[in-house]
Write a sequence for this structure.
């Protein structure tokens, strides 16, 4: 049913490209897309592209798929590994990876048919057993993999965690190229979920010495490590010429340069020492045109910022107070003044890229200071607020702006700020000691409306910091997860979203825009950032050596 | 003298023991669970969390943790690892040369510039150069290092292209801008110290006597005046060098230098006790050593100062 | 080394130091010293300039409303980051607040922290440096090694833990931040003080005083202190400026003054990212911090010149 046969992942529409004319300029000096990099002559096998592209990155935390929970590491792993399923970047739908096709009757037992010519970079063949071994290894508590709980709806997960079983019953190699996954309950977004980093296959060498493996991971992706991970300096990968997928990478070589300061990376791209910076500081938007001419682009992502409200505190239990707080915020003004216009105000919970609702249908996200004030006063909203955010992460300015608006529009008299480092911040949440609005964000590990909602708003969910609980919402999510017809499921998710926008356990703020700047060496039209903020370096066309 | 030095070296032992204990205690006292923070706002499972906490001895009482840490060092030379499994000894081996190079380049720049500027300011007291040094010092102190560093990158790195903007790939020349940024404030302070001390001694009787006897002015300044006025300067340079060996979070971060200061900051935030303690121990050794050298220099500069 | 003019190395007015026995005499002499100092200060134009500047800044810190009627917290995002104009002399900041009023109101926190910390570290440094340098031996070793240890503890770590402990009682304000800065910033000055004490302690006038039977306290206070304060005062005056900057770093790291506090340090650190687009955000606080530092420095020089027994002709 789900089988798709998408050819090349050409971007075209996904991006909000503001660099229409850039391509012309660049292709004039670079000579189009076929320019197999000079010294890397082996781009022979009919693969276009070549050359080296360097990109800004932060220092990864981990380079083991099951252990990587942040973007810096997962971005690198995305090049080194290919999972069972990949994401079609145009539609954000799942498409074949190592698995050629998949099937399910009930959304609960899934059968994946694997391609037969996949190997790891060291030549080891990939079979269904490879995935069985990897998944069991990731889940084994002794291996302490942070993403282990992504498997928590696999049959047998709990037994392995409790030490009652060695292997998960729910992952089975039927034969060499048939993998069966059985879940504890129906879950329609499984293929989406399998695109995530935690589900990449690992070769047997990994289990022998995981620490050595991490310094130079052997994967099955488009690119293979060249040398070891040079901590805080760079990670270099070369194209893997035996990659079994349909659309191999274009550049011959990718180098991630690790920076501790983004401003510095910006200057380095400007001076030509670095090719791509995909997280240029927002305040640079004002000068980016004079700094880079046409060498920049803007991308919408699903990275969501919100002001959560601790529903376990009495003041915030009245829904009118929450509505008033939301309506008193002029999101566009904040975005214009502080982010130079570079965020998309959120009138939704599901990112627009994944939503059928399109523009969003959030009645109380509209700025309406008069109505807000009236509502706030009637509901007897608190006159003193303490606002929480984590320090050193660039949230000071906009949080201050929000507080100013609450003071001006709602008659809030005193505002205090608690800016804490992240460990302390989370501890406060876990102990339910937060007493006022708090900043948090959510980005989608895999592109699914389910993942945009269930982990944050379902009763007792792991990231439900607001302490929100609504039976109707929980039921809708469960039904949607069980629904076999994708369109009906999408409708149900949208319905569930409407409940959230009405109940407003969190105040949606915006979805982030990313400003990408690049050097003259690469074709700006070939740069694409997906909804999860990953820039697809494998598609970048290098125009000059 | 030898006995003095040996005695000073023996002081290393208690100093290191006490300071590691203090630092370990400080990290221990930090609120929040570092393992919890590792995974961001999507929490890891309790099973994984427990395994990791056990692996890093985080569930043990404080003194047990500390004892295990010390025992690891003594029994196996194991200085512990970061939360992502990198041995602390590797980290230090990678980062110490960066910080040491930066400190030395900074040291050379600020010592030469500071002393020369101080001498000239004293000789031309209240004239243009003196005022210039004063204004420059005021400006450097008033501008945050962040801004100074950024301006340097902009002007010398990007616009003039004289120096690399960041990183350490171009050898010694990559350290010049960061060193200038780091030296900016200290050079001013040093110049002022030298200036005022030199002014003091230039007005003292013996210098006046020497001048009266017909000694050349340059010789008077270098042989008599300067020598006596160097003690505060040497003290300051020593203290400053020591703190440079501890790295500068700001400068290292802006210039993308993988040095110790930046690592300590990161590890403090991640609450990686073993990393913090390992590196701080190194700092303590620097301080004790540098201060020993400074004390010996006192004796050389002023023979009346004796150590038995 | 032999050509050192030992006797003259630290020529102090030996003859006046020798008459330290009689208590009453001592008092009048001290009074006349201060009177002398005051007389020479009044004649120093730089002292006048710095005194006036400091007076202005202190007034600004205590009575900001004398300088501006505008509420620094009245901020409208719609007028964010405007350049200086007739209406907004210093322009507006990111939040759209009147920057002139912000800078004026920033004086209180910044000067308070700069002043408290400079004075605090000065007292600690002078006391410890004096005792260590004068006593030598194990007292010196103990004080010096403690200095080394405090020096080695990264102050961010200390600040994080200490402020957290303090936070249990109250929010972190000027007092708490100053306290933390003093705890971790005294070592450099202490080393400086100890160094200059060591260079004075062996001079002839100290020996002479000792020979005449003066007690250690008297010697330290009357002979060593005045002759060794110079470098520390010089450093302390610049230090005030450094502290104003350090406070901003602490805030950035989440352990300094918390929003919505207004301070020059916060303004400076916020301004960095708008360096190219709105340079006025940096310029005005820099001028104010610069003038403050300048005033402290010049004042320090003048006071030192006036007090220093050596500089008297």
């Amino acid at each position: 049913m789900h089988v798709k046969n998408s050819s090349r992942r050409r971007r075209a529409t996904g991006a909000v490209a503001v660099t229409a004319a850039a391509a012309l300029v660049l292709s004039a000096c670079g000579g189009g897309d076929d320019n197999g990099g000079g010294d890397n002559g082996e781009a022979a096998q009919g693969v276009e592209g070549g050359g080296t592209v360097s990109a800004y990155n932060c220092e990864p935390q981990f380079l083991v798929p099951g252990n990587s929970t942040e973007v810096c590491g997962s971005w690198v792993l995305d090049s080194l590994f290919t999972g069972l399923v990949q994401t079609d970047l145009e539609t954000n739908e799942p498409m074949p990876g190592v698995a050629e096709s998949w099937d399910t009757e009930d959304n609960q037992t899934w059968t994946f048919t694997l391609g037969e010519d996949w190997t790891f970079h060291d030549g080891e063949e990939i079979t269904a057993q490879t995935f069985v071994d990897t998944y069991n290894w990731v889940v084994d508590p002794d291996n302490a993999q942070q993403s282990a709980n992504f498997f928590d709806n696999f049959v047998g997960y709990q037994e392995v965690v409790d030490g009652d079983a060695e292997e998960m019953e729910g992952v089975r190699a039927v034969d060499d190229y048939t993998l069966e996954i059985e879940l504890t309950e129906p879950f329609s977004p499984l293929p989406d979920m399998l695109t995530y980093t935690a589900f990449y296959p690992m070769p047997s060498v990994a289990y022998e010495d995981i620490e050595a493996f991490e310094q130079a991971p052997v994967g099955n992706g488009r690119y293979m490590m060249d040398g070891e991970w040079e901590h805080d300096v760079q990670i270099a990968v070369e194209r893997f010429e035996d990659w079994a997928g349909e659309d191999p990478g274009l550049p011959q070589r990718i180098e991630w340069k690790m920076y501790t300061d983004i401003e510095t990376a910006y200057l380095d791209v400007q001076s030509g020492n670095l090719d791509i910076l995909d997280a240029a500081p927002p305040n640079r938007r004002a000068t980016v045109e004079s700094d880079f001419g046409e060498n920049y682009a803007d991308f919408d992502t699903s990275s969501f910022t919100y002001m959560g409200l601790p529903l376990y505190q009495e003041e915030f239990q009245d829904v009118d107070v929450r509505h008033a707080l939301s309506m008193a915020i002029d999101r566009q003004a904040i975005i214009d003044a502080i982010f130079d216009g570079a965020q998309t105000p959120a009138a939704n919970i599901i990112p627009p890229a994944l939503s059928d609702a399109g523009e969003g249908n959030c009645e109380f996200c509209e700025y309406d200071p008069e109505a807000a004030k009236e509502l706030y006063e009637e509901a007897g909203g608190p006159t003193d607020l303490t606002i929480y955010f984590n320090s050193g992460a660039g949230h000071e300015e906009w949080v201050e702006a929000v507080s100013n608006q609450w003071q001006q529009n709602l008659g809030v008299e005193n505002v205090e700020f608690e800016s804490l480092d992240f460990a302390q911040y989370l501890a406060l949440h876990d102990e339910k000691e937060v007493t006022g609005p708090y900043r948090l964000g959510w980005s989608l590990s895999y592109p699914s409306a389910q993942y945009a909602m269930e982990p944050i708003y379902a009763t007792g969910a792991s990231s439900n910091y607001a302490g929100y609980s609504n039976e109707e919402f929980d039921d809708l999510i469960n039904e949607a997860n069980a629904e076999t017809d994708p369109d009906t499921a999408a409708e149900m998710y949208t319905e569930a979203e409407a409940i959230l926008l009405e109940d407003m356990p969190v105040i949606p703020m915006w979805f982030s825009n990313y400003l990408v700047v690049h050097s003259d060496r690469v074709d700006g039209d070939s740069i694409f950032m997906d909804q999860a903020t990953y820039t697809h370096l494998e598609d970048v066309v290098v125009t000059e050596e | 003298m030898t006995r003095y030095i040996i005695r000073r070296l023996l002081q290393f032992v208690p100093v290191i023991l006490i300071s590691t204990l203090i630092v370990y205690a400080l990290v221990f006292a930090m609120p929040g669970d570092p393992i919890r923070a590792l995974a961001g706002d999507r929490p890891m499972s309790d099973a994984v969390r427990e395994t990791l906490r056990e692996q890093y001895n985080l569930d043990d009482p404080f003194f047990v943790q500390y004892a295990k840490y010390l025992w690891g060092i003594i029994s196996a030379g194991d200085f512990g690892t970061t939360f992502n499994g990198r041995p602390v000894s590797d980290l230090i081996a990678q980062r110490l040369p960066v910080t040491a190079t930066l400190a030395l380049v900074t040291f050379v720049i600020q010592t030469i510039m500071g002393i020369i500027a101080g001498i000239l300011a004293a000789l031309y007291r209240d004239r243009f150069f003196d005022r210039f040094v004063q204004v420059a010092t005021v400006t450097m102190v008033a501008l945050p290092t962040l801004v100074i560093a950024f301006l340097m990158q902009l002007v010398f790195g990007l616009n003039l292209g004289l120096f690399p903007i960041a990183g350490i790939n171009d050898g010694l020349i990559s350290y010049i801008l960061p060193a200038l940024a780091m030296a900016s404030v200290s050079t001013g302070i040093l110049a002022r110290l030298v200036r005022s001390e030199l002014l003091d001694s230039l007005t003292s009787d013996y210098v006046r006597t020497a001048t009266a006897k017909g000694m050349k002015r340059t010789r008077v300044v270098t042989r008599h005046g300067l020598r006596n006025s160097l003690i505060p300067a040497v003290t300051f340079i020593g203290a400053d060098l020591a703190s440079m060996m501890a790295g500068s979070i700001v400068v290292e971060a802006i210039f993308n230098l993988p040095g110790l200061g930046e690592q300590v900051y990161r590890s403090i935030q991640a609450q990686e006790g073993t990393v913090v303690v390992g590196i701080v121990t190194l700092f303590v050794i620097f301080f004790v050593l540098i201060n020993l050298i400074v004390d010996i220099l006192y004796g050389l500069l002023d023979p009346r100062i004796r150590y038995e | 080394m032999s050509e050192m003019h030992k006797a003259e190395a630290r020529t102090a007015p030996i003859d006046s130091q020798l008459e330290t026995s009689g208590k009453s005499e001592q008092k009048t002499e001290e009074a006349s010293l201060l009177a002398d100092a005051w007389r020479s200060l009044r004649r120093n134009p730089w002292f006048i300039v710095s005194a006036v500047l400091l007076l202005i800044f202190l007034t600004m810190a205590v009575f900001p409303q004398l300088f501006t009627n505008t509420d620094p917290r009245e901020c409208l995002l719609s007028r964010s980051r405007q350049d200086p104009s007739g209406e907004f002399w210093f322009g507006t900041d990111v939040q759209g607040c009147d920057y002139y009023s912000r800078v004026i109101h920033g004086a209180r926190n910044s000067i308070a922290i700069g002043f408290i910390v400079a004075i605090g570290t000065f007292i600690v440094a002078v006391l410890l440096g004096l005792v260590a340098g004068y006593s030598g031996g194990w007292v010196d070793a103990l004080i010096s090694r403690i200095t080394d240890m405090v020096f080695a503890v990264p102050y961010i770590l200390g600040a994080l833990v200490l402020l957290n402990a303090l936070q249990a009682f109250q929010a972190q304000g000027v007092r708490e931040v100053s306290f933390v800065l003093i705890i971790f910033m005294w070592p450099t000055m202490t080393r400086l003080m100890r160094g200059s004490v060591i260079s004075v302690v062996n001079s002839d006038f100290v020996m002479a005083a000792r020979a005449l039977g003066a007690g250690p306290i008297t010697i330290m206070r009357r002979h060593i202190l005045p002759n060794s304060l110079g470098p520390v005062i010089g450093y302390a005056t610049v230090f005030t400026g450094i502290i104003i900057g350090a406070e901003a770093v602490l805030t950035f790291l989440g352990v300094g003054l918390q929003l919505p506090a207004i301070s020059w340090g916060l303004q400076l650190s916020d301004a960095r990212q708008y360096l190219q687009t709105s340079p006025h955000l940096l310029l005005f606080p820099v001028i104010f911090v610069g003038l403050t530092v300048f005033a402290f420095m010049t004042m320090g020089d003048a006071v030192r010149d006036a007090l220093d027994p050596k500089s008297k002709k």
In short: Chain C touches chain B through 65 residues (CB under 8 Å). Confidence is low (pLDDT under 50) at residues 1-23 of chain C. DSSP finds eleven helices and no strands in chain C.
